Automatic annotation (TrEMBL):
One Pfam family here: WD40
Taxonomic path: Eukaryota, Fungi, Dikarya, Ascomycota, Pezizomycotina
Keywords, comma-separated and alphabetical: Repeat, WD repeat
Thylakoid recorded as keyword: no
Protein role: Involved in mitochondrial fission. Acts as an adapter protein required to form mitochondrial fission complexes. Formation of these complexes is required to promote constriction and fission of the mitochondrial compartment at a late step in mitochondrial division.
Homology family: Belongs to the WD repeat MDV1/CAF4 family.
Organism domain of life: Eukaryota
Name of the protein in question: Mitochondrial division protein 1
Residues in WD repeats: 1-27, 37-75
One GO cellular component term noted in the UniProt record for this chain: transferase complex
Amino acid sequence: MVGSVTFSPNGRLLASSSYDQTACLWDPVTCALYHTLNGHTSIVGSVAFSPHGRLLASGPDDQTIRLWDPATGAL
């Protein structure tokens, strides 16, 4: 189940959060999956891009926040 979705500021990426403890980065034109972001221990309820689009924050129910590089999928 998807928790939330958001577009990057330039519209070239779509991020989704999921109840399977992951977040994902997608190409909104082709629907291709770029990265699956693993590392949470509970449902990921929200994702948000920074204003410049160089960071993606994911917020799960485990009371942590992770910051990701959308270009590489790295923490």
